[in-house]
Design goal:
This protein has helices spanning 8-14, 71-80, 123-127, 162-170, 196-200, 222-234, and strands spanning 28-29, 45-49, 52-61, 83-85, 88-90, 102-106, 110-114, 141-143, 150-152, 176-177, 184-185, 206-210, 236-237, 242-243. The protein is an alpha+beta fold. The strands form six sheets. Strands 1, 2, 3 and 12 form a four-stranded antiparallel β-sheet that branches. Strands 4-5 form a two-stranded antiparallel ribbon. A two-stranded antiparallel sheet has the order 6-7.
């Protein structure tokens, strides 16, 4: 059975072997998105590669605290798009359009932050057709050695868009092709291990923790999460457009 055709539940079960620790409950993955885990879950995720166990950390969101203020978008953009003035580097202007964490707002009022899910099976990397480098073993898309964040080698990337399509179809859809080059952007960098969105969230809605695959919202799109939360919080069935 192809990966695209397996159910969410089956996919989560297939990754049970990656879990290594008990972990916190009642957190949400920013999904971005990503991985979005709603207010009922958290994500802990570790995987085994060769003889070494790798523990992934990501940004999670407590939806009950998130107000959709977009402070996270501003500080993310400022940190990851720094400017050099007279030989000294400063944070950029903080244009939300350039952020790696994106707030999706819905009506009735539901705000769903989406950010990279740090998927252990790497669908975006798997989709990259570039052959692994003979020395580093990396494709054009690869994981950062320090943070395990997804990065792109602009010199080797062929701008095929496969990674963005894989993320969109198999996970949350937080990779955006550049409008001019078609090369992937907006992958969470984790700010070199010190996520600025977590640091400056005025409501302490964001956390930087190890992730777990057990939550029902893991890997779902912001739209799917919003639909379910709308039903739970407002007792409204969006598909039918009427109160339940």
């Amino acid at each position: 059975m192809s990966r695209n055709k397996i159910s969410q539940k089956e996919w989560q079960k297939s990754l049970v072997s990656f879990n290594r620790r008990d972990f916190m409950k009642r957190m949400l993955i920013g999904g971005g998105g990503v991985i979005l885990l709603g207010k009922f879950g958290i994500l802990h995720l570790s995987s085994v590669q060769a003889e070494k166990a790798i523990t992934y950390r990501m940004i999670t969101v407590d939806l009950e605290k998130c107000t959709g203020c977009r402070t996270c978008e501003t500080v993310c953009s400022a940190y990851n798009h720094r400017v050099k003035v007279k030989g000294e580097w400063f944070n950029g202007l903080g244009n939300p359009h350039l952020t790696n964490i994106r707030i999706h707002g819905f009506n009735p009022d539901v705000d769903v932050p989406a950010v990279c899910a740090m998927c252990p099976d790497n669908p975006c990397i798997q989709a990259c057709p570039v052959e692994p480098h003979p020395e580093t073993g990396r494709k054009a898309l690869y994981r950062d050695e320090k943070t395990n964040a997804i990065k792109n080698d602009l010199k080797r990337c062929i701008a095929c868009g496969n990674c963005a399509q894989a993320c969109r179809e198999q996970r949350v859809g937080v990779i955006y092709p550049n409008p001019q080059t078609n090369k992937p952007e907006r992958m969470c960098t984790l700010c070199d291990g010190d996520p600025q969105c977590v640091k400056y969230c005025p409501f302490e809605a964001l956390s930087y923790v190890e992730i777990d695959l057990g939550d029902e919202f893991y890997g779902k799109s912001p739209e799917s999460i919003a639909e379910e939360l709308t039903r739970r919080w407002y007792a409204i069935n969006e598909k039918e457009g009427k109160d339940e």
